[in-house]
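Narrative of activities, Objective 1.

The group set out to show that a structural description can be obtained from nothing but a protein's sequence at a throughput compatible with the screening campaign. Below is one input-output pair from the validation batch, recorded exactly as produced.
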Amino acid sequence: EWLGKPGRVNRKDVQSKIFKKIRDPRNREDLFKAMEKYSFRERLFCWKALTEEVVKDDNLIDKAIVDSSLEVRQWAARNLSQSQHFRNRLSTLLADRSVRVRYAALKAIPQVGFSQYRQFCEVAIFDDSKPIRVYARFMLRVHGDEHHEDKYRQRLSELGDNANPGLLAGLAETGKKEDVYLIQKFTRHKNPKIRASALYGLKLLEAEGVDNLYCLGLQDDNTKVRNTCVAILKSGYSHLRPELEVLLKDGNVKSQKAILRVLRHYGVLDSLKAILLVLTEPYEELHETAWDYLVSWHHKHATNLWVSYSDDTYDQTMKLLDKLEKSKIESPSHALHA
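Output recorded for this entry:
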């Protein structure tokens, strides 16, 4: 009967017993053997329970640093103690494959005695992760180093085609328009990550006369490059609508999807026209995406009474609507009301 009564149960005593068992040094060996079979959530729980023990014996954290779970390694980075092994552990964590772990390790660098660890920040400004680059530059600025663009230019001249994406992005984030020519040549690089970073850099530097490169990026074989160009073009480039509509007709399926993702952001009626253009042409692999966009357009704009458009756009849209109705294409169930 009491099971059916609602109420709260105080499990503090149970929790205390569990923590006591985990923290008992006599159980340490058995605990670590058992943790090898646990999920990352259970391992992380155990490590959090061992936080006070790690303070007493910081050698324990060496196991967490090499754990297969990034959450555990991130916890280790956040709980580094400044012992004689601090520098080596920091170096290991800063080389981790996970951005979250590297960022946590960078944040562990102390302000007091920063000069001992300056080199870690000087390397981190070239990281492929933007938050890491930004924080590393911030730390260096706090300690008197404000001219990072020269470091990026020097490293780029040293590495040439072997530059990494973070180097190009970092130069774009700190450089000037004069640096456009240094970055633009990498838009043809064989590594797609480099191409994407170069295009991102051109946008940051507000490069002129590179619209064609963004359009070519929409036709790139690599998803990351196409996504980068979609992010660039979906705002502030509506003057490219005629060119993109031509590319929409002539491109392959992957590029057509990328172009449609851009065009759907260009004006209320113009975006509808692009969606209808796809639905009224034999682009069967695009139809499902176009129907989804049509539903989204309907939810957002169907009740909007104040819309600006040109007479030409209105006429073309009406013709496409009429063509769609006559084609008797069967719409999916979720698009029947659109």
